[in-house]
Amino acid sequence: QLRVVESGGGSVQAGGSLNLSCTTPGLTFDDYEMGWFRQVSGNEREGISCISFSGRNTYYTDSVKGRFTVARDNAKKTLFLQMHNLKPDDTAMYYCGAGVIAASCKTTGARYWGQGTQVTVSS
């Protein structure tokens, strides 16, 4: 059984928007701080946005501040990432991680990973 499942990726032109979602069918969602990470082939996976248990505290890496918004709905057991003003540099496989440490948003802190959803931004 998959424990973390992402959806919502796709292809968009620069300046466009996409919304990602993540559910945790094999986990108790509100037991985990959650995060979004991305990876370009050949590069390390990086944390781009993380969120605390309640959603009150969030973290964003500098490159996405002001463009991406992370949120969670514990009642619906869903994590969201709204992405606006997308740039070609945002092209990557996006992963949802459960069990992260939201304050640091490091890949080493995640306990569970989804299989990823591809985001492609063309210029």
Gross morphology: globular
The assigned structural class equals: mainly beta
In terms of quaternary structure, the protein is single chain
**Sheet having the most strands:** 7 strands, mixed
Low-confidence stretches: none
What is the overall number of helices? Answer: 0
Query: pLDDT average, as an integer?
Result: 96
Range of helix content: under 10%
Q: Gyration radius, to the nearest Å? A: 13 Å
- Kindly, what is the distance between the CA atoms of the first and last residues, rounded to a whole number of angstroms? 38 Å
How are helices and strands ordered from N to C? EEEEEEEEEEE
Number of beta strands: 11
Our estimate of the beta-strand percent is 35-45%
Describe this structure in words.
β7 and β8 (78-83) form a beta hairpin. The chain is mainly beta. The protein contains no helices and 11 strands. Strands 2, 4, 5, 6, 9, 10 and 11 form a 7-stranded mixed β-sheet that branches. It has a 4-stranded antiparallel β-sheet with strand order 1-3-8-7, with no helix packed on it.
